[in-house]
Design goal:
With about 150 residues, this protein is an alpha/beta fold. The protein has five helices and five strands. Helix 1 packs across helix 2.
């Protein structure tokens, strides 16, 4: 399986955090054939626990649903940074990398491992910066899918 097959996404137009998460929920629900209300609820519940903004304008919201589907990273690339969502380094969120996984992951160990590898790379500030400079979802996918 190619890592790039685990990355989907689209451009978002949300003007604030709430709108961006709503649009991401819609995109993820459509792509993964899940209930949009349930996807939005899991995104909002996770954000209420702790903000998922990292650095360089990147946030990593979580979608964990008790349904069977192939795990994915759902990319939401915003046209402009969100003024109401700050990263740890003071930048504004403009790129959402939501990892969507089923609650029961025994069937998808390989996909989970590959998504974990992609997400772990975000601990590297230079890698985060490269991802944050991507202009399209395809560019984000290509960078995340690079072998390291």
């Amino acid at each position: 399986m190619r890592k790039s097959s685990l990355v989907t996404g689209q451009q978002l137009t949300g003007a604030n955090k709430q709108e961006a998460l709503q649009q991401l929920a819609h995109a993820a629900a459509t792509t993964l054939n899940l209930d949009e209300i349930e996807v939005k609820a899991t995104l909002m519940t996770r954000e209420a626990l702790a903000d998922t903004a990292l650095i360089s304008g990147i946030a990593i919201p979580h979608i964990i649903i008790d349904k069977e589907f192939t795990p994915q990273i759902c990319v939401g690339l915003l046209a402009s940074p969100l003024e109401d969502w700050d990263c740890l380094d003071g930048t504004k969120v403009h790129l959402l990398l939501a990892f969507a996984v089923p609650q029961r992951t025994l069937v998808h160990q390989q996909e989970i491992r590959e998504i974990s590898e992609m997400i772990t790379q975000l601990a590297d500030e230079q890698f985060c910066w490269r991802v944050s400079q991507a202009q399209t979802v395809a560019e984000v996918s290509a960078i995340l899918s690079e072998e390291r």
